């Protein structure tokens, strides 16, 4: 990509030296480079820069994050943080580690082969695995609580390595004003 941009900039600089307008320059860039042509805004910006005396076609040094810092050290840093706190978003990881968001995304998906999955509900699964679960319930109680917004499916997403078990959470329903909490106690059979 950098090489193509340099070629475009040389062509723009050449057109400026020939006295072509920004629009004429853009039309020529599109004619020569086709679908890979620089955007109109970029062509006009570079045309203005060269017209005002700029000589260099290279990028100016910039402060801030590097564009791509996909090193082994950063892969290990991302792996360590995700293993501690799996629910972090790419933006949170990027801010925490001071790494470009796209680089964090590539590290997670390409280097660590991770994907973000939502937790699945386990109530029915537990009942299917233990058909006598409800027989062991001894007593229950109910209480009303004011409105609570359970975490959304998106909020429950976590980064997981290949082969990791999907996270689990209990089913929660959003209420209008308040909710009833019912708790049950089980009878323990054993020594």
From TrEMBL:
InterPro entries: Mos1_HTH (IPR041426), RNaseH_sf (IPR036397), Transposase-MT_Hybrid (IPR052709). GO terms for molecular function: nucleic acid binding. It comes from the Eukaryota. Residues 9-53 form the Mos1 transposase HTH domain. Pfam families: HTH_48 (PF17906). This is Protein GVQW3-like.
């Amino acid at each position: 990509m950098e090489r193509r941009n340099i070629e475009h900039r040389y062509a723009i600089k050449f057109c400026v030296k020939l006295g072509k307008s920004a629009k004429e320059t853009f039309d020529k860039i599109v004619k020569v480079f086709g679908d890979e042509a620089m955007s109109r805004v970029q062509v006009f910006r570079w045309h203005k820069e060269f017209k005002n005396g700029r000589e260099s076609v290279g990028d100016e040094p910039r402060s801030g994050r590097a564009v791509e810092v996909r090193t082994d050290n950063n892969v290990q840093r991302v792996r360590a943080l995700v293993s501690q706190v799996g629910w972090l978003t790419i933006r949170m990881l990027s801010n925490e580690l001071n790494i470009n968001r796209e680089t964090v995304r590539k590290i997670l998906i390409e280097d660590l082969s991770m994907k973000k999955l939502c937790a699945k509900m386990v109530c029915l699964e537990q009942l299917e695995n233990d058909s006598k679960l409800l027989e062991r319930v001894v007593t229950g109680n109910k209480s009303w609580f004011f409105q609570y917004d359970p975490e959304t499916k998106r909020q429950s997403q976590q980064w997981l390595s290949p082969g990791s078990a999907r996270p689990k959470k209990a089913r929660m329903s959003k209420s209008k004003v308040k909710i009833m909490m019912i708790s049950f106690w089980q009878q323990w059979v054993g020594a």
